[in-house]
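INFO batch 0412 | record 1 of 1 | parsing
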Amino acid sequence: MDWELVFSPTSIRDLADSVSYISRHDAEAAARVGDGIIEAAEVILSSQPFIGPVCPEYEGAGVRYWLYRDYRIVYEVHEADRRVDILRIWHCSRGDWPVELHNKS
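INFO prediction complete | emitting tokens
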């Protein structure tokens, strides 16, 4: 049975920023990227939530990441609820990973 997948507001904002940036040059490519990330997360992370390694930045916190193409999908597994919370979606070319998991703005 698949696990519930929940995208945090911050992860949605991250994805929207990436799609918006790509759409400046190619709207169809932007849609493919956005849809691809969501679909991959729904297929892989909802069925194999422990596939990604633990994030070294949050060792001991149970925060994991999984790479989809050039995107780092950071998530947390809640075993008791069979839920996966997507915390951030970060394009690796953007440089250093933001250590805050929830954008306050």
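INFO post-check: The chain is about 30% helix and 25% strand.
INFO record closed
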